[in-house]
């Protein structure tokens, strides 16, 4: 099939590449000229495991192309994916300006039947808005379908290739038939296509993300309680996760959820519920709890040093909002660093992938190091924000030699408490007892 994908971010580029991988001809469109030039030169503009190999393979096979010229892409394609940003607006709602602006262009440019498939996360009613914008501009037949995307950054290729389900929101029989064919390489009995109306599909995406954000937040509150009463959240997590009604995924406590989606999607659903006259109380609590959870290492750090912190030097491991990505949008590390800088604290930091993005925010306000050990030279303590695999088994003796004091505040529970005790660290984590020297 001939497909155009508009927007080549995490969702668009992965969608385009994976659809090319199963034999389709795909042309990816972006307004960012530098990005398109980079992709034409065979460079993947984001860090996403396993993407580069498929990207290069499909360019070579002449199935994956890039352009800044929307009309060229539309003329070659019947299926048009929208993978455009829907960032949070000042009032918390999802900003639809990118989607609406492309809808206007589509209305001006399409000359024959198109299926316009929206993969962006958009509030209920957006399919209708897009439909109306296009309808006002053309008499050409078209369908607008809601087809939300559930991939995770860091596992984007794997999630796209083996989705747990594909949601198609439309009443158009013609569109359903074409989409069933398009997605047939990805569907199995256990990985079904679920067809519903547009509004239900749009809400399914928000309900999924906000449910997961709520699950994490619930565990963070359980962890906070564990710290007060002296229970161990790891045991509680295993205890409840073995109940298949609860499930053992997304129960890991930490320093709050970040990323380009959970925070904005919880805000957007709160906003659209308010607008619809429904007070979505649980999600308002999720936002409040998450805001304080993101800074929850700071009081621990202050208490340990009896509030004498301004002369301290702090090392940081992990800047990305989670491992396996260079994405720092809404990363808890940003909240932590901002709090420390407010106190005039000197910071050294390391992240395997996210340092270029963090440098754009902080410049020389913090010292970026070449590896995890360089961070530790003469620091009074280490703060861990992201559970990158390479942090799990460090040389503890080397760490102690480098650090002024063997003190660690771990926001992701990456170390075994017994191991920290044996190695002589003061170690504070989330929802577990404090390990003292
Ligand atoms: N990042 C993720 O893991 C997931 C994101 N989503 C949703 O998918 C949507 C896209 O997200 P990302 O891919 O992360 O965004 P992104 O910000 O990484 O990429 C969006 C791309 O669209 C381009 N763009 C903007 N205006 C354009 C226009 N008029 N014409 C062509 N290109 C244009 C931008 O230059 C950028 O390259 C959002 O609604 C997001 O909520 C859904 C599931 C997963
Ligand atoms: O709409 C989206 O953009 C995507 O949002 C999330 O994917 P992503 O943001 O890439 O990352 P997750 O792995 O879900 O993690 C989100 C945040 O929750 C945190 N988290 C996750 C799991 C957990 O048990 N505990 C926890 O604190 C992570 O550290 C991270 O900050 C969803 O998992 C995807 O299904 C969805 O498509």
From TrEMBL:
It is an enzyme of class 1 (oxidoreductase). Belongs to the UDP-glucose/GDP-mannose dehydrogenase family. It comes from Lutibacter aestuarii. Residues 315-417 form the UDP-glucose/GDP-mannose dehydrogenase C-terminal domain. The keyword Aminoacyl-tRNA synthetase does not apply. It catalyses: UDP-alpha-D-glucose + 2 NAD(+) + H2O = UDP-alpha-D-glucuronate + 2 NADH + 3 H(+). Signal peptide: none annotated. Pathway: Nucleotide-sugar biosynthesis; UDP-alpha-D-glucuronate biosynthesis; UDP-alpha-D-glucuronate from UDP-alpha-D-glucose: step 1/1. Gene3D superfamilies: Cytochrome c1, transmembrane anchor, C-terminal, NAD(P)-binding Rossmann-like Domain. InterPro entries: 6-PGluconate_DH-like_C_sf (IPR008927), NAD(P)-bd_dom_sf (IPR036291), UDP-Glc/GDP-Man (IPR017476), UDP-Glc/GDP-Man_DH_C (IPR014027), UDP-Glc/GDP-Man_DH_C_sf (IPR036220), UDP-Glc/GDP-Man_DH_dimer (IPR014026), UDP-Glc/GDP-Man_DH_N (IPR001732), UDPglc_DH_bac (IPR028357). Pfam families: UDPG_MGDP_dh, UDPG_MGDP_dh_C, UDPG_MGDP_dh_N. PANTHER family: UDP-GLUCOSE 6-DEHYDROGENASE TUAD. Its EC number is 1.1.1.22. This is UDP-glucose 6-dehydrogenase. Keywords: NAD, Oxidoreductase. SUPFAM superfamilies: 6-phosphogluconate dehydrogenase C-terminal domain-like (SSF48179), NAD(P)-binding Rossmann-fold domains (SSF51735), UDP-glucose/GDP-mannose dehydrogenase C-terminal domain (SSF52413). It comes from the Bacteria. GO terms for molecular function: oxidoreductase activity.
């Amino acid at each position: 099939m001939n497909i155009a994908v508009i927007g080549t971010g995490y969702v668009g580029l992965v969608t385009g590449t994976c659809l090319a991988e199963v034999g389709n001809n795909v042309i990816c469109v972006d307004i960012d000229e530098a990005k398109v030039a980079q992709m034409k030169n065979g460079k993947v503009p984001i860090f996403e495991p396993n993407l580069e190999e498929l990207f290069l393979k499909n360019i070579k096979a002449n199935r994956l192309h890039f352009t800044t010229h929307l009309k060229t892409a539309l003329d070659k394609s019947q299926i048009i994916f929208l993978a455009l940003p829907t960032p949070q607006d000042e009032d918390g709602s999802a900003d639809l300006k990118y989607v609406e602006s492309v809808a206007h262009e589509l209305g001006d440019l399409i000359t024959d039947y198109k299926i316009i498939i929206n993969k962006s996360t958009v509030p209920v009613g957006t399919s209708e808005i897009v439909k109306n914008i296009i309808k006002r501009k053309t008499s050409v037949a078209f369908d607008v379908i809601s087809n939300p995307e559930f991939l995770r950054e860091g596992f984007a290729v794997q999630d796209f290739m083996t989705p747990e389900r594909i949601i198609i929101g439309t009443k158009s029989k013609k569109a359903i038939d074409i989409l069933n064919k398009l997605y047939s390489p990805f569907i199995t009995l256990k990985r079904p296509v679920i067809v519903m109306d547009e509004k239900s599909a749009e809400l399914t995406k928000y309900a999924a993300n906000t449910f997961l954000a709520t699950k994490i937040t619930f565990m963070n509150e359980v962890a906070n309680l564990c710290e007060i009463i002296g229970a161990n959240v790891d045991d509680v997590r295993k205890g409840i996760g073995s109940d298949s009604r609860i499930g053992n995924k997304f129960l890991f406590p930490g320093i709050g959820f970040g990323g380009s989606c959970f925070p904005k999607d919880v805000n957007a659903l709160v906003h659209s519920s308010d607008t619809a006259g429904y007070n979505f109380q649980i999600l308002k609590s999720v936002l409040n709890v998450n805001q304080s959870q993101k800074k929850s290492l700071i009081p621990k750090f202050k208490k340990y040093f009896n509030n004498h912190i301004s002369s301290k030097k702090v090392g940081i491991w992990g800047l990305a909002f989670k491992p396996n990505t260079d994405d720092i949008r809404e990363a808890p590390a940003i909240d932590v660093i901002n709090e420390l800088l407010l106190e005039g604290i000197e910071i050294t930091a390391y992240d395997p992938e996210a340092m270029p993005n963090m440098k754009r925010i902080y410049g020389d306000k913090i010292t970026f190091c070449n590896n995890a050990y360089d961070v530790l030279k003469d620091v009074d303590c280490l703060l861990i924000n992201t559970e990158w695999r390479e942090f799990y088994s460090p040389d503890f003796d080397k760490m102690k030699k480098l650090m002024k004091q063997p003190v660690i505040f771990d926001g992701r529970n990456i170390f075994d408490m017994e191991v920290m005790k044996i190695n002589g660290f003061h170690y504070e984590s989330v929802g577990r007892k404090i390990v003292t020297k």
